[in-house]
Each structure stands twice: as structure tokens, then as C-alpha cells.
């Protein structure tokens, strides 16, 4: 079954219209909110965050598989972040041509040279998957792992009640009971709280480093509020605040606006556009050099690049990170799809030939985040043909295109028409871990996120305006 409700509900236009009104009001009541595009920095006018009218069926076994592998991805990301030789080798070709990754890498090298001033590491990541369909079977395949600014842990924690309610009103009580609770915001806050506690100063604050455009502020407020509930103070600051008022004392303690900062939680700084001036790079460096716990620190940020993902899929690489733990290696590898190098040389040449022969079977990915950056179909040929003898291709990796089973749903978006839509979904799983020196003091899978988009849109992202929030309905 590819839909949560029978056709008699799905196709009943009057009922759907009623249900959409019920759903929107429920979303507003639950706090499934976003500021409007016109005034992204004011809460005077807000709207519901876009979401599906109905939840989407997801096979239980595959869902559980995604939850179970998460702590291993946490461990893996953490191990990579502590392996400078691996990072240097994995990213060598990329940084030769991609200026953004090169700048991040330079900061990483500088920190290594100076020595890390903080042994506490906080990782909050989200591993994303599609359920690839082959021969009538769906298998869990990783799209990417986000180690910086992974969003929607907050708002998605309020989505279960929205869909439960809609299903009940639609007369589907039994289905409504198949929607799981989900509270990743609490889990992320627990990770932040742990890092704060280990930092060891009651006065010190958690600094959310935020963007100028704060449309998605409610998602972050869920986490802030969880921290305040534990009497842990949080502040919201931008790069410019850090530039104007930030400094390190003699012990490299970070101060911003006179607050000592225990944890910097990056919800900014992951795209080239976030660094519109050299000074912003200076601010990033200042934060990295500080004794504050960084979430993520620069090496964990780099561990989440698509190039690293591709290198991890090479034979024998995972085994190096998990010697004597073949069952973990197996669990992780099972989620990998085909990932191909575009480095110069015969292997990269082979990738180019393969992509040009069947561009529709692949996705070409640069080292970027936030949605809307991937290249598909004829775009792939364009990039690879133009750059065939040049080195620009090294900025990308090539990946098998996944084919999840489409399902029917209605995408609820402000001012968008209410129409039945062919949809694809992407499952995200949130991980949280804290390490102090050699010791992992926390390593957890803390929740999930289901996003759904129109099957004609190749790229994703809720903030990018393509995907909308959803819930898995376990079948
Ligand atoms: P970003 O870091 O910008 O989110 P992603 O790797 O998640 O980059 O790609 C963005 C979107 O593109 C995904 O949300 C998904 O919808 C689509 N996409 C990415 N990789 C694939 C793939 N291998 N097969 C099918 N769709 C993909
Ligand atoms: Mg990403
Ligand atoms: Mg993504």
C-alpha cells in the first residue's frame, strides 16, 4: 500500500478540503510553524510549516534498520573527525578545485597546528535515506549525512499529533495508531546539555549561531526551550555579533556580548553564501580556536562532505575505522549505494564515461549543503563534457540515482493549490553523541524526520521550498 488512507478518502474532494483545513489548524496549534517569506525576521505574521495532509507508509523493518545503524554512523563520523590523515587524503582532490571546501580545510589544518583547545566533542547529525525500489523490494539507501546544522528536529516532533488527528477525522482510527512518537528536539537538547555540563560553568551559555534570514526560527526554538527548561541559558547570535563583540581570553575561553560561551551550535556557516566577507571567515576561525565546544567542530564538519561519503564507500575503507567489527561494517555498507570518484585518472575517467552513457541513472553532487545544488540528467553531461579534460570535475562526486516508490498525497503549502500529487519521501534519522577525550559519554539515536516532495522535483529540502514535513506510518 503506497498511501495511508483508502481511495474513497483520497479522491473525495469535499472531504479533502475539510481535512486540509483541519490539518492546518492542528499544525498551527501544535507549533508546526514558520515565519513568512516576506518577513523572515519577525513573528508578527507566521504560517504553518509545509507538510503532507496524510502520513506516508514506511515498512517497519527498514525504518528500524535506519534507527539501528545510527549509533554506528555517529561513531564513524567521530572517528573520521579524529583522523587528519584520512581527511587530508580524502579531500585532496576536492580542495584543489573547490574553494569553499578548501577554506574549511585550511581552518582545520590551522587548528591541528595550534592544537585543539577543547577535548569535548558534540555531534548532532542527521543521516538521510531513500527506500530504493528494486525487484519489488525496498532497501534503505543513504542519500547523505549532515554533520552541520541538520534541521527539523524541533518541528517534526509536533508532526505525529497532526497526522493522528487528521486520520481520526478522516475515519481512520486504526491507521492513526500506527504513527510513532518522535522527539528528536529533546534528544539534541540532551546532547547539548551534556556538553554544557562537561564544560563546567553555570554562567556559560549555549550560543546558537544563526543566519540573517530566520524564517525557520521555530524549529530552533524547540531546542532552545528544552535547554531553558533545564535552566541552561541560550543566546542567538550572528557572525556579525561575533565579529563585533567576540574575543578569546588568555585561556581561549570564548566571550560574545559579554557572555562566556560553553557551546557554539552552528545553524549557519555551512554554505559559501554564509561567508560574504573575509571577516566572516575570521569569525569562524575565532570560534574554532576557542575553548567552547563546537557543534560541529571543523573536522566533524568536513567529515560530513559528500567527498568523504564517496571515499567511505571504497572497498576496505570502513574496515579501517572498525577493525574487528565486521558486523558494524556490514550494517553501514548495506545502506550505501553506488558512489563514484571523479578524481583525475583512469578511475575518474571511467566514472565520466559511465555517467555520459546514462546520465539519467545518476546524480552529480558538489560539496554543498542546503538543497538545490545537485545536477541531474543533461546537466550532468554538460558539466562532465565541458570539464572532461579539466580538473573541475573533482569538485563533484557521482552517485547512483535512487528510485523510491511513489505514493499519492496532498502537499499543504501556504497559497499553493490543493491537488493530489505523486510523491517521493526521504527518511532522516537524528544522532547525538558527546565525547570527552577518549571517552564516548553519550551516543544515541534520538529521532527521525520524514520529508516528502513531488516526484517531479529532483532535489529536496524543506527550507529550500521543495519538500514538506511528513510522518512515517509503519506498515
Ligand atoms: P543537500 O546536502 O543539499 O541536502 P543531498 O545529497 O541531500 O544534498 O541532495 C539534495 C536532494 O536531492 C535530496 O534531498 C534528494 O531529494 C535528492 N537526491 C540526492 N541524492 C539523490 C540520489 N542518489 N537519488 C535520488 N535523489 C537524490
Ligand atoms: Mg546535506
Ligand atoms: Mg540533504
UniProtKB/TrEMBL annotation:
A GO molecular-function descriptor: glutathione synthase activity
Superkingdom, taxonomy of origin: Eukaryota
Claim: Metal-binding is one of the keywords in the record: yes
Binding-site list for substrate: 126, 148-151, 214-216, 220, 267-270, 451, 462-463
Coiled coil: none
Pfam families reported for this sequence: GSH_synth_ATP, GSH_synthase
Cofactor(s) listed: Mg(2+)
Binding site for Mg(2+): 144, 146, 369
EC identifiers of the protein: 6.3.2.3
Entry binding sites for ATP: 144, 306, 365-374, 376, 426, 453, 459
Gene3D superfamilies cross-referenced by the UniProt entry: 3.30.1490.50, 3.30.1490.80, ATP-grasp fold, B domain (3.30.470.20), Glutathione synthase, substrate-binding domain superfamily, eukaryotic (3.40.50.1760), Glutathione Synthetase, Chain A, domain 3 (1.10.1080.10)
Pathways involved: Sulfur metabolism; glutathione biosynthesis; glutathione from L-cysteine and L-glutamate: step 2/2
Entry GO CC: cytosol
Cofactor remark from the record: Binds 1 Mg(2+) ion per subunit.
Domain Glutathione synthase substrate-binding: 204-303
Entry keyword set: ATP-binding, Glutathione biosynthesis, Ligase, Magnesium, Metal-binding, Nucleotide-binding
Enzyme class: ligase
Catalysis performed (reactions): gamma-L-glutamyl-L-cysteine + glycine + ATP = glutathione + ADP + phosphate + H(+); gamma-L-glutamyl-(2S)-2-aminobutanoate + glycine + ATP = ophthalmate + ADP + phosphate + H(+)
Family from the record: Belongs to the eukaryotic GSH synthase family.
Assembly and oligomerization: Homodimer.
Job description of the protein: Catalyzes the production of glutathione from gamma-glutamylcysteine and glycine in an ATP-dependent manner. Glutathione (gamma-glutamylcysteinylglycine, GSH) is the most abundant intracellular thiol in living aerobic cells and is required for numerous processes including the protection of cells against oxidative damage, amino acid transport, the detoxification of foreign compounds, the maintenance of protein sulfhydryl groups in a reduced state and acts as a cofactor for a number of enzymes. Participates in ophthalmate biosynthesis in hepatocytes.
Name of the featured protein: Glutathione synthetase
Origin species: Channa argus (Northern snakehead)
Amino acid at each position: 500500500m503506497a498511501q495511508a488512507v483508502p481511495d474513497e478518502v483520497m479522491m473525495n474532494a469535499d472531504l479533502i478540503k475539510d481535512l486540509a483545513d483541519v490539518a492546518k489548524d492542528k499544525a498551527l496549534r501544535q507549533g508546526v510553524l514558520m515565519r513568512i517569506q516576506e518577513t523572515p525576521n519577525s513573528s508578527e505574521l507566521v504560517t504553518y510549516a509545509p507538510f503532507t495532509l496524510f502520513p506516508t507508509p514506511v515498512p517497519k523493518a527498514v525504518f528500524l534498520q535506519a534507527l539501528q545503524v545510527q549509533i554506528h554512523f555517529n561513531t564513524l563520523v567521530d572517528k573520521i573527525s579524529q583522523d587528519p590523515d584520512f581527511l587530508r587524503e580524502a579531500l585532496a582532490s576536492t580542495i584543489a578545485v573547490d574553494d569553499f571546501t578548501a577554506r574549511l580545510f585550511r581552518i582545520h589544518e590551522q587548528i591541528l597546528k595550534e592544537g585543539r583547545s577543547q577535548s569535548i566533542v558534540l555531534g548532532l547529525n542527521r543521516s538521510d535515506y531513500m527506500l530504493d525500489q528494486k525487484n519489488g523490494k525496498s532497501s534503505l539507501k543513504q542519500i547523505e549525512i549532515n554533520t552541520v546544522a541538520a534541521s527539523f528536529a524541533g518541528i517534526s516532533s509536533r508532526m505525529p499529533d497532526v497526522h493522528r488527528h487528521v486520520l481520526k477525522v478522516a475515519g481512520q482510527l486504526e491507521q492513526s495508531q500506527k504513527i510513532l512518537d518522535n522527539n528528536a528536539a529533546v534528544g539534541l537538547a540532551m546532547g547539548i546539555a551534556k556538553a554544557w555540563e562537561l564544560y563546567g560553568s553555570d554562567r556559560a551559555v549555549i550560543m546558537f549561531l544563526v543566519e540573517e534570514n530566520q524564517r525557520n526560527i521555530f524549529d530552533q526554538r524547540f531546542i532552545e526551550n528544552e535547554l531553558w527548561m533545564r535552566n541552561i541559558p541560550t543566546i542567538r547570535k550572528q557572525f556579525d555579533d561575533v565579529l563585533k563583540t567576540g574575543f578569546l581570553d588568555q585561556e581561549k575561553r570564548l566571550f560574545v556580548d559579554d557572555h562566556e560561551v560553553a557551546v557554539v551550535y552552528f545553524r549557519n556557516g555551512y554554505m559559501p553564501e554564509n561567508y560574504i566577507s573575509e571577516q566572516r571567515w575570521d569569525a569562524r576561525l575565532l570560534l574554532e580556536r576557542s575553548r567552547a565546544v563546537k557543534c560541529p567542530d571543523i573536522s566533524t564538519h568536513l567529515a560530513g562532505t559528500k567527498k568523504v561519503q564517496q571515499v567511505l564507500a571504497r572497498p576496505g575503507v570502513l574496515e579501517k575505522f572498525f577493525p574487528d567489527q565486521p558486523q558494524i561494517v556490514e550494517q553501514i555498507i548495506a545502506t550505501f549505494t553506488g558512489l563514484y570518484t571523479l578524481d583525475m585518472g583512469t578511475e575518474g575517467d571511467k566514472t565520466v564515461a559511465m555517467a555520459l552513457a546514462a546520465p539519467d541513472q545518476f546524480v552529480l553532487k558538489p560539496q554543498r549543503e542546503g538543497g538545490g545544488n545537485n545536477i541531474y540528467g543533461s546537466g550532468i553531461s554538460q558539466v562532465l563534457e565541458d570539464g572532461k579534460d579539466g580538473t573541475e570535475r573533482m569538485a563533484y562526486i557521482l552517485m547512483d540515482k535512487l528510485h523510491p516508490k511513489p505514493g499519492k498525497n496532498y502537499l499543504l503549502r501556504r497559497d499553493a493549490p490543493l491537488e493530489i500529487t505523486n510523491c517521493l519521501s526521504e527518511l532522516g534519522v537524528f544522532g547525538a553523541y558527546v565525547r570527552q577525550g577518549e571517552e564516548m559519554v553519550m551516543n544515541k539515536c534520538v529521532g527521525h524526520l520524514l520529508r516528502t516532495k513531488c516526484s517531479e522535483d529532483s532535489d529536496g529540502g524543506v527550507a529550500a521550498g521543495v519538500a514538506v514535513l511528513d510522518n512515517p506510518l509503519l506498515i
